[in-house]
Amino acid sequence: MILLDEQLTGLKPFLSSLDWEITTVNNEGLNGRPDQKLLEYAIKNNMTLVTQDTQLAQLAELHNLPHVWISFAKLSRLVDEELKNIDKNT
Fold first, then answer.
1. C-alpha–C-alpha distance, residues 33 and 24, integer Å
2. Domain total for the chain?
3. Residue 78 Cα to chain centre, angstroms
4. Domain extent at residue 39
5. CATH of the domain at 62
6. Is the overall model pTM greater than 0.85, yes or no?
7. Which of 16, 41, 80, 88 has its CB surrounded by the most CB atoms within 10 Å?
8. How far is the C-alpha of 80 from the C-alpha of 74, rounded, in Å?
């Protein structure tokens, strides 16, 4: 099961359509809870966390929780690739 952090709840329908089993912090009643509580919940429920929150991603790493950190660096690389593809086709 994948747990999407608050800022990424909009990804749920897209990842669900790709056959991932998804829940969100909001669905689990964890909205606004401290990072440590989200981490404990994800560990207890054997979840993989997806977040943009640097501190939460680092806590997940520290506790060996599977996670995906969507950093601005990763987003920038993705946008850069797409822009280069557009530029090649024009």
1. 13
2. 1
3. 15
4. 2-88
5. 3.40.50
6. yes
7. 41
8. 10
| CB neighbours of residue 39 within 10 Å | 18
One-letter amino acid identity for 68?
V
Separation of alpha carbons 20 and 78, rounded Å: 21
SS (H, E, C) the chain: CEEECHHHHHHHHHHHHCCCCEEECCCCCCCCCCHHHHHHHHHHCCCEEEECCHHHHHHHHHCCCCEEECCHHHHHHHHHHHHHHHHHCC
- Identify residue 17 by its one-letter amino acid code: S
The answer to whether the beta carbons of residues 50 and 44 sit under 8 Å apart is no
CA 26 distance to own-chain centroid: 13
